[in-house]
Design brief:
Helix content: 40-55%
Number of helices: 7
Order of helices and strands: HHHHEEHHH
Radius of gyration: 16 Å
Shape: globular
Number of strands: 2
Largest sheet: 2 strands, antiparallel
Strand order of the largest sheet: 1-2
Length: about 130
């Protein structure tokens, strides 16, 4: 179990307390890309079910995701971004820009996925807000 950064009372530390775990922003990224159900997140991220279950529970408890039941037997849920979750788009945009500038892709792996629409929408919106 990780310790909380909230006692630091720094805004960055408080934010990292919510989304600083290595999978958290990737779950948000996939939700922005249309993933809603557990198996969609699992298949897209190739992560263990236990880890994914913990991330979804933590992001839901933090108000980043909302959870809605879509099946009673068996109980199944969809996870949708809340306003708090959608507010992380600029964070992901900045992180992607930093990654493009300062890291090199692994030549032995498949190429990166196509540029997601939410990234283009966010970047153009940010440019318009700066005018």
């Amino acid at each position: 179990m990780r310790s909380s950064l909230a006692s630091d009372n720094c805004p960055a530390a408080r934010a990292l307390d919510v989304v600083g775990e290595r999978w958290a922003l990737l779950v948000v990224r996939e939700a922005l890309g249309g993933a809603r159900r557990f198996d969609e997140f699992r298949d897209r991220l190739q992560m263990s079910e236990n880890t994914l279950a913990r991330r979804l529970a933590e992001l839901t408890a933090a108000g980043v995701l909302g959870r809605t039941q879509y099946s009673l037997k068996p109980a199944r849920f969809e996870y949708l971004l809340t306003d708090r979750g959608r507010a992380l788009v600029p964070v992901l945009v900045a992180l992607a820009a930093w990654g493009n500038e300062w890291t090199d892709p692994d030549p032995d792996l498949p190429g990166p996925p196509a540029r997601p629409g939410w990234l283009d929408d966010s970047a153009s919106g940010a440019a318009e807000r700066r005018k």
